Amino acid sequence: MTTRIPTPKEDFTPRKRRTIDRWIPTLFLLAASISIVTTVGIVATLIGDAAQFFRQVPLREVFSTRLAPLAANPSFGILPLINGTIVTSLIAMLVAAPIGLMAAMYLSEFASDRARRILKPAIELLAGIPTIVYGFFAYSLVTPLLRELIPSLGAKNALSPGIVMGFMIVPMVTSLSEDAMRSVPASIREGALALGLTRLETTLHVVVPAALSGIVASITLGISRAVGETMIVAIASGSSKNFTLDIRESMQTMTGYIVEFTSGDAGSGTLGYYSLYAVGLLLFLFTLGLNMAAQAISRKYREVY
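-> structure tokens emitted (305 positions)
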């Protein structure tokens, strides 16, 4: 005995189908609006509580180099936090950018299909390691090794977490840059090779300039990732609030400051408590600016084939 399969018209009456068609766009709109509503809520919370901080602390103190929130006479200069964030992020990108770009050039232009299928997932595995593991790796292994080379390096310093953050960001730079390079049409490569360029010259002088917008965007997004990193710097960089450019010394980043104070040092409603939101707002503006810069650079240098 054969079983008759109902057709779609028999499954749904015209009225039911019209009802589903009418409600599905609304459902999709609600799903798309979740991220917007979440962002608006975060921004509103940050601005509302950060305003309480800026009402009580003058701007000349905010942009000073003295940060002592728990002192008898507290001071809330955020320049040491900005300095620590920028220094560790720059160290990270000095590691991630060259390694990530070279890996991307190899995967895109030199690796065989079999090698690419093996190496690219292996590199991307680094992105799946929890950042707290990176932090303990930086503190327990990288720092002792560096102290063998640099005896004056402190037990907590900016160099070690910066280097480890760089390796953490390598998968992002590699993956995005490799995608940008592979999107360059093969005809451009073939034309360069036909003119007598080697594969290396074709990669450096043809493919990389053609994929520049994607490469710059990947580096900018990598910087944004480094600025927002928390656990690596909280564990390996320490909590020194001194304003210094010496990468051998301990520095505190904006995220490290938030972690320190959310552990219970700042009571709810105190000035120190509201300073968390001020730092959080500044961090949000940093990452927002970097993401907008990445989009602007991509639009400006984007090549359409």
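The chain has one domain: 67-75+86-301.
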